Request: fold
Amino acid sequence: MIRTIRAEEITKNIKEMCIEANHILSKDMEEVFLQSAEKEKSALGKQILCQLKENLDIAREDMIPICQDTGMAVIFLKIGQDLHIEGSSLADAVNQGVKEGYIEGYLRKSVVEPIERINTKDNTPAVIHYEIVPGDQIDITVAPKGFGSENMSRIFMLKPADGLEGVKESILTAVRDAGPNACPPMVVGVGIGGTFEKCAQMAKHALTRDLNEKPSIPYVRALEEEMLEKINKLGIGPGGLGGTVTVLAVNIETYPTHIAGLPVAINICCHVNRHAHRII
Amino acid sequence: MDYHINAPVSKEDAQKLKAGDYVYLTGTIYTARDAAHKRMKETLDKNENLPFNIKGNVIYYMGPSPAREGRPIGSAGPTTASRMDRYTPQLLDLGLGAMIGKGKRSKEVIESIVKNQSVYFAAVGGAGALLSKCILSSEVIAYEDLGTEAIRCLEIKEFPVIVVIDSKGNNLYESAPAQFREE
Ligand code: SF4
Reply:
């Protein structure tokens, strides 16, 4: 059976999700914040983590965006193959939602033409990733992405001989270089395998994972734990001002790759790792 | 050390601050980020005056989110300072008193801070809602067409910042992480 929904419904949800994501972090992110403040050994670092927690409370209660960089809207859509969308085109419906959300929600419009730098004035277009899946629902994730951390992201086309050690070194290099610029404590999304664009997309998608969910592949799980520990030994700390909490989470996704390659993408995110999720 | 100091920042105040000091700033500061710096450079290249008197004044690298009704400003935390590095030594030579941002600065900027006895503060990145509470008023004074990137004059009260690079060239981004590094 084909299920039909109106494009306006998607617009309305995207609009609300843009506003929600920019004011309220997901529960798992809030929890990890509280745990991190207890673990931090630097007094200044502890103070900064407490300020960040207070910042989250103010954002939620007074409806002030958590960060003034309300990001470029990155949107993941998993569309059931038995779903029919009626009305405007799906991309138009999504962009209309972004436009309404950023204008009515007092969010910053940060999107410009790349060379002429002319602002589009409504934060569109969004970056939309589509996936067709079984079912008759649409699964939407809205992840506004700030560019202080986006600018520190890296991609490495490693050789197969570089192996797991090469992957680890690439992740550490990206985080070390990001340092204070990426507003630590960070969340690090990693994509391993696939092609050039596939690993970048996995790295971005990895940032949206619920932090209580762990990867099913044992070596990936072990790698996440090892990298979390290694990064926190870099000493960068909250705000880059020294400490033992540099990263809140390392989320890794993998995909088979070609016999000749080992692509690794590291998408750095700040502590304002925003994502709103709904299923319609 | 904790200090409560006024903005514009006097030379004496700038010189007494050390990397690692926690400072509450009160007074008047100006915002400028990428596009405003580019315009200021073009203005100087044409031998025209900057839109505000730079002597002793503080530039805050920040582009706010829009203000809701009844509020002076929206979310208002720092942006990455290194993108302004290529413009900064010239502004320091003209008397720029201090800068507030986040993230590392280039060798040239650090040398210029020492030469001009200025100071670079960090505000906590990603704390824009909290920091907005220390801003009493905000007025666009130049380049209005740049939207969030326009130059704003802000009245601030007890605005919390940390001295990262002091007038001797000490750099907290180098010294503080080294104490916690276990590689
Ligand atoms: S990196 Fe994140 S926390 Fe820092 S300014 Fe950008 S969006 Fe805000």
Q: What stands out?
A: Chain A has a mean pLDDT of 97. The radius of gyration of chain A is 19 Å. Chain A has two domains: 3-23+66-145, 148-274. Residues A 67, 69, 146, 148-149, 182-183, 270, 272; B 77, 125-126 surround iron/sulfur cluster (CB under 6 Å).
